[in-house]
Amino acid sequence: MRKRILALALALLLFTAGCSGGEQSTAGGFQPDFTTGLRTWVEMAAVEDGYFVVIRDVAFYVEKSTLDYTVFCADPTCQHRSGTCLARRIGTNMFAIQVYDGEIYSVDASTYVPERGWLETLEAVKTDGTGLRDVRTFFDQSKDRWPDAQSGSHFQYAFAILNDQIAFCPRSSVVCVSGIDDPLEDAKVLFTYNSPRPTMIDGSEANWDLWVDGGCFYYCGFNHPGGEMKGAASWLLYRYNPETEENTLVWRSDEQAGTHEINGWYLKDGVFYYYVVPQPYEEVETGVFRCDLDTGETVRLSDCQAGTWAEYDSQYIYLIDYDAEAITVLSLETGDEVTTLDLKAALTADGLVLEHGDGFYKDVSIPGADETYLFVHCNVDAPESSDPTYVLYAAEKARFPEGVWHQVIPYRWDDFHTD
Question: Which of 75, 264, 369, 382 lies 20 to 30 Å from 151 when distance is taken between CA atoms?
Fold first, then answer.
């Protein structure tokens, strides 16, 4: 295929030109439009002229002007099936990648410590594919600081970088911040349930997601009755200012609209957006809400319930309907409906069918967006070994009403695995 034929040429261009991103510090760091709260098989980060994409366990580079892609590996003879391949090293972490100060940061979780679990290490590589290095560990084995002896570590692969500081979750119920290169023992603990070990209502561990806005770190998660955090079950949003070291609870759901389920949230310029879907056990207002964190004023931006999960960028709100295989687009500013993107039509045109599984990782997700494209990832059925199992699409924002889709990367399991 055309993109496969271009792979070697693009690889040579990528590693001689350095993607034009290695010198762009403004293109690095936390990128709100390329961060998603939805667990997915795909993550993205942007540089000036393109995008770095991790699909499943392989890193790719996509050129913005053409949407052509290549595997992010400098070795033209590499088959990308070994853990020593650069694309596979970066792809070990499928939950978060960031470009900061000319380097791609990810978490390598490929080292197993007997009877302790997996050792998670923050690693960085220059955007031209050189200088791969281990930055710091998230697991202090000697002090056994974060994991417990039975189940190993619980790093949930969430981190955010801001001005040489990194916020991270070494356990799903612990949030920390430190200098990027500082050792684990120097990390400042922002939040922890401590003991007893927390669980959500369904028995699973509580998870926390990270954000950056206005020079501060934000972290949001679910609090349940019991343990040291007594009181009603609620979602909590904290703000940490790395300059003043102030760590403040700025929003909680039971003070706004009851103990509701938030299916997707976003922060922009001190305004908190969140999506509430109907719950059988609660009578609360549903839809998309906007809360000014300075004043506490909350308004329902839209009563639309067209999806089961919301994702956002600086222009739009995207309500994903997995069953209908469609995405309803709302204006972030007004909440008005802009259009509905028919994903099923794009899949049908390519001879593909959505998997419609019921696993932890959703079949449709939005790993990123910018002023030009909305990127959408799909898990697809692959009855034949040559068929893709994951597909990354790009929808042109300027042509949203027309529903113009481009198939960017078809990921085939057999291309990167021997069995």
Answer: 264
For residue 17, the surrounding DSSP H or E stretch is helix 7-17
The mean per-residue pLDDT over the stretch 169-183 comes to: 82
Q: What CA–CA distance (Å, rounded) separates 52 from 37?
A: 18
Q: How far is CA 193 from CA 175, 188, 198, 413, in A?
A: 10, 15, 6, 39
Report the alpha-carbon distance of residue 203 to residue 200 in Å, rounded. Answer: 5
Distance CA 218, CA 229 (A): 19
Which is it for strands 216-223 and 208-213: parallel, antiparallel or unpaired?
A: antiparallel
Give 162's strand partners: 165
Give yes or no for a contact between 132 and 180, defined as CB atoms under 8 angstroms apart: no
Largest CA distance in the chain: 60
How confident is the model over 308-332, as a mean pLDDT? 94
**Residue-wise pLDDT tens digits, 84-99:** 888 988 877 666 889 9
pTM of the model as a whole:
0.87
